[in-house]
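=== RUN LOG ===
request id: a7f3
mode: sequence -> structure
chains: 1
length: 333
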Amino acid sequence: MKKNRLILPTLILALAASIGAHAQRFTTIRNGLQWTDTRGEMVQAHGGNFLQVGKKWYLIGEDRSRSWNPDVNLYSTTDFQTWTFEAKIIENGVTHPELGRSRMIERPKLMYNAQTGKYVVWCHWEARNYGASEAGVFEADSITGPYRTVWTGRPIDTKSRDCNIFVDHDGTAYFISTTDENTNLGLFTLSSDYHSATAKTVLCEGMRREAPAIVNIHGTYHMISSACTGWDPNQALITTSRNLHEGWSTPRRIGDRITYDTQASSILTIAGTKDTTYIYVGDRWMDPDLPHSKIIMLPIEFDKDGNMQLNWREEWQIDLKRGTWRDVKKKKK
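=== RESULT ===
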């Protein structure tokens, strides 16, 4: 009888511990808030993307603390709650003599090249009047730098502005940007070292799209983009294809009429032991000003026909280890 009395409390404690451990696995993502790092300072990483290295996710982006002529910052996190400032990896007047003077950087994007073992940044490399319309490439042996200038110019002699990168499952990398005076999107295949563009495909011809973000999900390419409306948000569109270079579907609306007051920055993939979650990462520019612009993260959903859906959530939770997400349960009043 004494043995039975001991077993029940033990089972209750084990069950409570299991429930507690399960709850602790989930990270809560809250949208619309200002992120701060471990120094207590604002996270300044706008227009960037994430790169996972081991158990850490690194966030690269524009430092808009002084609004114009941004440096490029790098942060790390293991839980999307605690942000550690790693380095100012591209700096005005340091990384390139014209940076912060006649040139500025927008939308820096970070990749790892498994063949060379190098970390490579592609970005929009621009003049103050947006007349240069060029791209810039930087490289480092370590993710935290120091980064050195590899090349700046127009990829395949094409005027290039608002941009992103995409690395396919086979390691082939692409630079995609708004081209030809914001008229088309250019998909540029990169060399094996990611240093230069070797081929170009015109996408969304004449549609005047920017902020393109591409992800490959089970062999289907999904691309979210926005219209060219400066700092003002607009309705995002999505198009899909089984071939990066052709056959893209007619763009359709995704999200609300201003796609939740954001502009696409990247699509983050969280591959876990149980499932894979895809996350829309967008910039909420000028909220209320450029330095205080917010980073918004929303889980991507799919309807019964496999069409990507994007719904607003003020907060939601993700299990980074298992790769699953859930809505936050509302407490009963």
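=== NOTES ===
The longest strand covers residues 104-113.
Residues 232 and 285 are 8 Å apart (CA to CA).
=== END ===
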